[in-house]
Write a structure and sequence with these properties.
11 strands
Length: about 120
């Protein structure tokens, strides 16, 4: 069973950057699509961004478009979410996930999930 581990979250002031990353335990990761989701307190988990295995297709939620960039390095079994111009409303636990079905915007499309990393943006 492949494991995904997020890291790189933390506390940042509004307007600042963070770059969470997602480390996979198996080479299988390089052939799977990857997504980032987030869940704020009292809210449902929501789609943030997704990337296919070759990085040729990228998708973003409207709320992060132009501020966040998803990427991956298959040689390192690692995915990234570069977050710039952070806002207090970006505060959430961020999860990475991997999918056999190609790029997905829904939670049900992902077979593997990490444990999440907390991102807190202060105003």
């Amino acid at each position: 069973q492949m494991q995904l581990v997020e890291s790189g979250g933390g506390l940042v002031q509004a307007g600042g950057p963070l770059r969470p990353l997602c480390s996979a335990s198996e080479r299988t990761f390089s052939s799977l699509a990857m997504g980032w989701f987030r869940q704020a307190p009292g809210k449902e988990r929501e789609f943030v961004a997704a990337i296919n295995w070759s990085s040729s297709n990228l998708y973003y939620a409207d709320s992060v478009k132009g501020r966040f960039t998803i990427s991956r390095d298959n040689a390192k079994n690692t995915g990234y979410l570069q977050m710039n111009s952070l806002k207090p409303e970006d505060t959430a636990v961020y999860y990475c996930a991997a999918s056999y079905r190609g790029v997905q915007r829904t939670i049900g499309g992902y077979a593997y999930w990490g444990q999440g990393t907390q991102v807190t943006v202060s105003s």
